[in-house]
Queue: 2 jobs
Job 1
Amino acid sequence: MKKRNYRDLSNIEKKNIKEKYYLTESGKINKKRFNRLLIYGLLCLIYALVLVLDAIINKAGVINYIFASFMFIFALIFLIGREKVLIRNINSFLKKNK
């Protein structure tokens, strides 16, 4: 018997499973956390772009580019980590609710 995995589902099934997961108690709590991580990641990306544009316009030193690259890396970590944790939680939800 084949295991159900989030990655193997169709888009409609993924949407339905996410909605069912978010109706659970842990899903409600985690949804707030996932949204917060998404906001932090997007704000870090925007801030990194602003820093790069500011460094280009003002012909700033290398330290500004380094700081912007660190901000960009942290933003990617937030966004990728958020997605991995979300998929891991939904996969465990699928295993419990076969």
Job 2
Amino acid sequence: MVKRKHILPLIILLLASTSLAGNMEKTNITLQMEEEVEVGEYVIEYYQASHVDNEQRLKIGYDTGTTLQVLENLRGENLFEMEGETLNVSEEIGIKINELGNSRDGLYIDLNVRSEEDVLSSAQMELDTPSSINVGQGEDTTIPIKLSNNGLTNQTFQLNASESDTVQTVFRNDGFTVSEVFVEAGETETVDADISISQQAEPETRIMEFQAENISSLTETVNIEVDGAERHESMNLNIGDRFIRAEPGETIATSLRVRNNGEVTLNNVEIDIEGPEDWEPDMQPEGVDTIGPFESENIDIDIDLPANADIGDEFVEISATSDEYTPEEAEEVRINVTEESNMSIVGLALMAFSLIMLLAVYRKFGRR
């Protein structure tokens, strides 16, 4: 015979608490024929063996997880003889048979269950999410939490979550912000945990703990991988002079501006100058510790040309590196090395010749 299973009885009435061997509660249960109810790990079933055999039966068992261990099994006259009596099923639960009767809904049995609080008030919490989730800095995520009241008493759960200065949680139920949620016996409620990760949160793995407190104390955890937000990195080099004319033995001077065009601070910025052999560059400063986003630093560059520098065009490459970013291409400066001009000597010779001629003219004609 296939039996109907009803997790909740049709009538559940919470009576006053009593104390036997600890903190006990009483609950009235009315079962119609072919119904059963779970009280913690205990299963109470009221049924008939068959349609031919109208013998009423009451079976009380304990669910071990793999099998149902039968603790009491009353039938027929034995069941009716126990009307008004209490079955001491175990140390943590006792069941009194109040009445066996018949109504327009059919046969029924009225029971009084006396048990410890945690047996009558069992509940479960389930996070409807993977055990580990990824959330970026400055982002939000929502974790649905299912609270199932598997007991026989209504419960109001106080909601809490582990938080910090950079991680905040708000609980919502039916569109409202809540700090507690009411769950009727045998029912399930879903609460959304809205989690906000601050932009300043460190990229790391955080263990978030959620608690629902009442007669039942429930705890679940989830790993949140805080990912660093993707930020733009960029560096730009600006050369003061891209073409310089100089003679062998001279010192040429120019400047370099290093600009951070990105959103990430650049650390340990170093400048490198590549030029012809024996050319001696000098920089002030030689490097920069940090350049903040959208900030700039100026570098003064002097290059000493040797006296025997080759005549013609030479090229100097200037590049920069940092811990965070390195431009793909170096900047190039063209140096035009020219021969020493003899025009100054010729000029001096002409000046000397002109002076001599003036003196000669003065001596010849000046005394007349």
